[in-house]
Amino acid sequence: MRTPEGTDRRRRVRHEPGFGHVVVDDGKGTSLVQVNMQTGMDDARGELFDSDSELLPDGTLVAVHKEPGEKGGKGIVMWTVDTMTPDGRRVVVSAFTSGSQEAAATRTSPALTIAQLRQIALSPQWWR
């Protein structure tokens, strides 16, 4: 994964088909970034996207979430952009306030902005 301008990729944590993690650093501390790609997600559309979701002209849905982390790290915040195309292809990109979900937060906001996460999630490169 190419990281946005102003960040350096520090290490790749894990990669498997459809799922990957990298740790980036913008000079203010490390931030875990994870990407999940799935196909055939049509059946889950109603569970994943609601009236607050954005509908793009091409029919792609975009949902943005700012939530506590899922794995117990003290003070971890997770920003997520979740996208789904009309044919059920889904890309979810999340960034965290630490280089690990299990460790305590080391920064007040993730290294990548919502706009950067959105740009990554909506990139056509995922489906080439």
Pick out its properties:
single chain, 128 residues, mainly beta, seven-stranded antiparallel beta sheet
Structural description of this entry:
It is built from 2 helices and 7 strands. It has 128 residues and is mostly beta strands. The protein has one domain. The longest helix has 8 residues, at 114-121.
Please give the structural blueprint.
Blueprint: E1 8-16, E2 19-25, E3 30-38, H1 45-48, E4 54-55, E5 61-68, E6 77-84, E7 90-96, H2 114-121
Antiparallel strand pairs: 1-2, 2-3, 3-7, 4-5, 5-6, 6-7
Shape: globular
- The side-by-side strand order for the widest beta sheet comes to 1-2-3-7-6-5-4
Mean pLDDT: 89
- β-strand amount: 35-45%
For the largest beta-sheet, the strand count, sense and barrel status come to: 7 strands, antiparallel
- CA gyration radius, whole angstroms: 14 Å
SSE sequence, one letter per element: EEEHEEEEH
Number of domains: 1
Number of helical elements: 2
Share in helix: under 10%
Distance between the termini: 14 Å
Strands, count? 7
Structural class: mainly beta
> Which ranges are low-confidence, i.e. pLDDT below 50, for 5 or more consecutive residues?
none
